[in-house]
Structures are given as C-alpha cells and as structure tokens.
Amino acid sequence: MSNNKENQKIDYGIILTVMLLALISISMIYSTTALMGGAGLAPTIMQAVWYGLGAIAVCVIMQFDSEQLWKMTTYLYIGGILLLILTSLFYDRNLETATGARSWIRLGPIGTIQPSEFVKIPYILMLARLVTRHNSHYQNRDYASDFKLIGKLALFSAIPTALVLLQNDLGTTLVYLAVFIGVVLLSGIKWQILLPAFLAVAGLGTTLILLVVYNRDFLLQLGFSNYQFARIDTWLNPYQGTSDTSYQVTQVFKAIGSGGIFGKGLGTTEVHIPVRESDMIFSTIGENFGFIGGAFLIFIYFVLIYHMVKIVYDTKNEFYAYIATGVIMMIAFHVLENIGMSIGLLPMTGIPLPFISQGGSSLLGNMMGIGLIMSMRYHHKSYFFSGDGEDFYPGA
C-alpha cells in the first residue's frame, strides 16, 4: 500500500518524456559531432554527464515542498542577482571576443557555464511568490490593485532582465520576458488592462522592424547594434545576406529541406553547418530523420507540457501554479524560438533547443525547472495563507 502511495507521488509521464528527450539529445549530438564532424566521443559523453547532473538536481529540488520554496525564494532571488553581477564583472574575455556575449564564466578545467540559465529558476519563484502574496492580500481585485501587481512584477523583472541584456545576451533576455508575460497573463489582471498593453507591445515591435528596414540610423542613436540589424536582415532576406549568420541560416534551410519526409539516416549529412550541435541541432534532426523526426520531437514537447499542466490541476496549489506557468513558458518559448528560427519563421537568436542542444548550463537549468514541477506531485498538499499573507500553513 505504501509503495502505491509513493508511486502516486512520482509523475512517470514527465520522467519518461525527459528520458526520451535525453536519448534523442545524446543520439543527435553523437550524430553531429562524432559521425558528421569527426570530433570523437567527448561531446556525447559530456552531454550524458550533464544529464546525470541534471537528474541529481531534479532529485534534490523535488524534496522541497511549497512552504520551503516560499521561504527560500527571496534568498535565491538575491543570490541570483549577485551571480549575474559577478558574471558581468568576471565574464570570459575569449568567448566575449568570439561571440560578443559577456554571459559566460570560465571555471578552470570544468569549462564555461552561463549563470543566467540557472537564475531563471529563482526569477520564476520570485514572480510566483509576488503574485500569490498579492492575490492573498487583494481578494476583491480592482484596477488599482492590478496596476500595483504589474508594477511589482515589472520591478522584480527589470533587475535580472537588465543585467542579462547588459551581458549582450538578447536570446536569454527574451526568455525572461516570455516568463514575465506568461505569469502576467495568468495572474488574474483584468483584460481591459492586458489588451491595450498587448497592442502597445505589438505596435512597438512592428515599429522597430520598420525602423530597421527604413531608418536604422535612428536606432543606432538609441544604442542598437549592427549585429542586431543583421539578424533582422537575415530573417527578412536570408538568401541576400553575406554575413556568417546568413550563411548559417540558409545552410540550415538546405539541411532540413534535404531531409524530406523520412530523412537520410543517422549520421548522414550533405550540408555543412557551423556549430550545428548547439543552437542549430534541429537541422540534424531534420536532415537525419526528415519531417517525421521533427514532428515527433514537437509531439514529445507537447506531451511534456501536457503533463506539467495536468500536475497543476491535480495539486490545486496557487503558488505551484505560477511556478509551473514560468517553467512552461521558459521551455515553450525555447522550443518555439529555436525551431521557428531554424525554419525561417522567426529571427535568429542564440537560444538552444531545450533538452536537445549541446550545453550543460541550458540543460541543467531546464532540469532544475523539471525538479520544481516534480516537487508538486511529490508534495501533494493543500496550503492557505495566514491573515498577513506572509507564511504558508498546511491545510486539510
């Protein structure tokens, strides 16, 4: 009987889905680096090692229930901000010269890590805490309370987002913004506020694209860079550009298109793509396994997100619900942007394909998010706030 109760605490749907993604990731990195690139087994082994570390992180994080996470959130958030500041001061100069990004720290023989990937987790926890506490204080929501909530969320989002943007990492900045938007949409704020805000953001984005095309000198005066313009140019006219980005994008199109319906088989390639094992790994899936392989991967992501949403409905914990919203938005935006840029629907950004791309920092950050989701089922309790909204107490 106790074994059955213990089994009910574990969501095996999520575990099996992540294990399947791990198998795909290791296979694709092996195909890209060992079979296609002749780089040996080191990248494949390192990806397996990072998955092992990620599994340990999941097991550790899922031991913390919502009450413990609630109490830890402020300290984790402050620690995350300090980590981003340290990154801005002690970033790897060699990688900054090669990539332009100041978001990496070198840890001796271990290699480099990207702290902003880990800080996503305390950022998500802080947004969830802010909304949950605000809703406990304002049972009868009005426009004033909604604007107050938006102000709180914007303030606590502006600090980490600005620090990541200063590291010249636009892709990760967009992920933080996606998490912010997801939490705001589900926070209960009135649609009369959200709709004008959405239209304003859409209008701003359209205006920026038009300025890139017709008056980029004005944007240069505002602090925008030519490399950012190059990405928009590549997106709008990929075959007319002469930059490295244009070459990489058009090669990705050729690789995915050449895969056809069923692909060419594992390790078979006829198209050269620079550094395809990281952000461009979807091109390996498309070339090796065709449309069927790409569609199957998207279906796996759908199943993973479905199980995440299902846990929220089963546990009925408001704090957990907003945590899950942040984690789902983080993963979903990565998938949408990475695959979108690989097939030409979205501009090129430095965003890896979650659980698939080579890279320990991104993988470990996503596995930490999985740990938060798994803790919901593992600690299936009901919590309510005390009168001051400060602390959680277990309820019946």
Provide the residue-averaged pLDDT: 87
Within the largest sheet, what's the order of strands? 1-2
Quantity of strands, as a count: 4
Proportion of strand residues:
under 5%
- Calculate Rg over CA atoms: 22 Å
* CA-CA gap between termini: 22 Å
Write the layout of secondary structure elements.
Elements: H1 2-8, H2 12-36, H3 42-61, H4 66-90, H5 93-99, E1 105-106, E2 112-113, H6 115-137, H7 143-166, H8 170-185, H9 191-214, H10 216-221, H11 226-236, H12 244-258, H13 281-315, H14 318-342, H15 360-378, E3 382-385, E4 392-395
Antiparallel strand pairs: 1-2, 3-4
Helix pairs in contact: 2-3, 2-13, 3-15, 4-6, 4-7, 6-7, 6-8, 6-14, 6-15, 7-8, 8-14, 12-13, 13-14, 14-15
Report on this structure.
This protein is mostly helical and 396 residues long. The chain is globular and about 60 Å long. A hairpin with a 6-residue loop joins strand 3 and strand 4. The protein contains 15 helices and four strands. The longest helix has 35 residues, at 281-315. A two-stranded antiparallel ribbon has the order 1-2. A two-stranded antiparallel ribbon has the order 3-4.
What key attributes describe this structure?
396 residues; mainly alpha; two-stranded antiparallel sheet; two-stranded antiparallel ribbon
